Automatic annotation (TrEMBL), chains A, B:
Limits of the IclR-ED domain: 110-293
Name the record gives this protein: IclR family transcriptional regulator
Organism: Thermogemmatispora tikiterensis
PANTHER family: HELIX-TURN-HELIX TRANSCRIPTIONAL REGULATOR, ICLR FAMILY, HTH-TYPE TRANSCRIPTIONAL REPRESSOR ALLR
Listed Gene3D superfamilies: 3.30.450.40, Winged helix-like DNA-binding domain superfamily/Winged helix DNA-binding domain
Keywords: DNA-binding, Transcription, Transcription regulation
KW tRNA processing (keyword) present: no
Residue span of region Disordered: 1-21
Source species, domain of life: Bacteria
Record's keyword annotation contains Transcription regulation: yes
Amino acid sequence: MAKRSHAHPHIQASSPSESKRDILRSAQRVLAILELIARTPGGLTVRAVSKLLQLNISTCYHSLNTLLTAGYVERLPSGHYVLGPQIPYLNDAYLRTLTHDWPATDPQESWQAVARVPAHRPSLSQRLRPILHSLSERSQEPAYLAGWRYGEVELQAIVEPAHAERIPGIYIGYRGQAHAHALGKVLLAYSSPAFVEDYLARHALIRLTQRTIVERTLLCEELHTIAHQGYSIDREELHADTACLAAPVRDAQGRVMAAIAISFRSDLLSRRGEWLIAQVLRAARQASAELRLSRPCEQC
Amino acid sequence: MAKRSHAHPHIQASSPSESKRDILRSAQRVLAILELIARTPGGLTVRAVSKLLQLNISTCYHSLNTLLTAGYVERLPSGHYVLGPQIPYLNDAYLRTLTHDWPATDPQESWQAVARVPAHRPSLSQRLRPILHSLSERSQEPAYLAGWRYGEVELQAIVEPAHAERIPGIYIGYRGQAHAHALGKVLLAYSSPAFVEDYLARHALIRLTQRTIVERTLLCEELHTIAHQGYSIDREELHADTACLAAPVRDAQGRVMAAIAISFRSDLLSRRGEWLIAQVLRAARQASAELRLSRPCEQC
DNA sequence: GATTGCGATTTCATTATTTGAAATACCGTC
DNA sequence: GACGGTATTTCAAATAATGAAATCGCAATC
C-alpha cells in the first residue's frame, strides 16, 4: 500500500528501524500496550509496561490513561492494568459478524463475494448449533464448527459438554494453523488445488507438536487421503494429548461450506476411534441435509 | 485524575469542546473508529468513517491503516472495514482473567482484594459449569452465572441448550444494568446496605422496558423481598418478552459469591414458573455445596 | 472508447500533539 | 521519620498528525 516514495524533505533520520508510513505511531503503541497487557495474566503497572516495551514512562502513562478512559483496560487498586469491559463488548460485535454465510473456498477470490452477502441472515453456526449440540452430547466431547473467512479457516462455533474442556488456546474466531488441525485439513482437502497452492504460499507449516505435518508434500498426500476417505484426523498435530476428527458440510450445490469436528484425549482414538468417526460423519451429514433445505440464498 | 491545572502557556484555544488532558488524541480517535465499526454490521468505508465521525478523510485513512496492520479491523475487497481477528484474540485473554475467584460484594472496597488474588486458580465459572449445564439441560433454557467484578455485576458464564437463544445484547463479560435483571437484583439483594447505597450512587436506574424498576425506593423494596424469598424474578425488566430467575450461590462462609439464573419467554412464567424456580434454587444449592468442599482458598 | 463520478490514496507544509527528563507526590515499609 | 519504589505532573523541544488538495483507480455511463 504505502509507496515509500522519495524521502521526506523533513528529517526522518531519527526513527531507528524502518518505521512504516501510513501508521499512527501513538495509536500503534497504544495497541501494542493493549496486547502486552493481554499476554500478562496478572496485569502490568505503568512502570512494567514502560520497561517491557522500552518506552518512556510518561508515554505509557498517557497511553494507559487513554485505554482506561475508553474502557479497554481497567486499573486495579494495586496499580496493575488488566483488560477492560470494552474487550468483550467488541467481541460480541465480532461474533455478530459471523452471522454471514460464506461462499466456500475455491479460488482465493471467492471470499470477495463476502462483501456482497447481506448482513443478518441466519448464520451457519446458528443453524447448525443443534447438530453440534447433539454431537457433543452423544460423544461427550467438545464439538466445533469452522468455515472459510477471508481465505482463512476460522473457528466459528464451539459446543462443550458438561465436563470435557476445549483445546486450550482455541476460541471462537481463532484462525490459522489449518495444516495442524482436523478442521483445517478437511477444509483444505476439499478446496481447489489452486487455492491450496495459494494457501500454502501464504502460510508456513509451523511445527506445533512432534506430530505436526510440516512437509509440504506430506501435507498434500494427507489432503488427498482425506478427500478420499471423507473425514480428517488430527493425531496430536495441534496439541499434545489431543486428537480431533472432522468432516465436511456441504451446501445444496455440493460445495463444502464448513466442517464439523470433535476433540478428545488422543488415547481414545484407538479404543473409540471408529465410533467417534461415525458420530462426526453423521453430524456432518445432518448438517448438509439442513443446508439443503430452505436455503435463504441470495446469489443463486 | 487529570488535574487540569493552570492553562498551558501554549495555545490550546483551537480545541472545540473541553478536550481532556492526559489522553493521546490520535489513539483515542483510533479507538473511537474501532467502536464505530463495531456498531456497524456491514462495515464502513474510509469515507463513511470520515463523514460519521466528522474527521478528515486522511486521518481516517491513517487510523484505519493502523488498525488494519494490527489486526483490529479487516478490509473487505469492497473497501469496507469490519472487525478483525485481534478482537476475539483479546477476548480470549479477557476470558482467562475471569479465572479468578472474587471476594463477594460488600463495602465497595472489598473488590480491591482482587489485586491480591493469585491468578490461575480454578474459576467459579469453571467449577460451576457442570451445574449450569444440567440446569440448562433440565429447563431447556439458557443458564447464566454472574459475580462481582470491580464493583460491578459481571456475567461470567452462559450455557445455552440446543434450541433456546440467550437474551440478545447479553454476552460473557457484560456488566451493568444490575437493577434490571434477575442476576443483578439477587446479587444486590444480598449486598450490604452500604454497598447498595454506593452502587446506586454510581448508577442511574435506566429504563430498558416498560417494566424496568426505575424508582429507587421500589428497587429497595424489591431487594428486600428478594433477600427474604431467596431468589429474584425479572419480569421483562431487561428485555421485552423475556423473564429471568436467579438465586444466590454462597461460599463456605455463607457469603454470596455469585448468582445462577435462567432466562425464558416470559409467558412461561405463569405456567412453569414454580417449577423453574425450583430448578434454579436447586442449581444454586448444588453450586453452594460445590463451593463448600475443597476450597483452594488463599486468604483463609 | 471516452467520460464522468465516486471514493481511495498520496502529498506536503503547517501546527498541534506527543515526548522525555526531571521534579514532585504518593504510599507502604523499615 | 526516612527510604524505596511508583505514579503523576510539568514544560519546552521536536516529532508526528492534520487537512486541503492533487492524483489515482475503477466502474458505470454516455
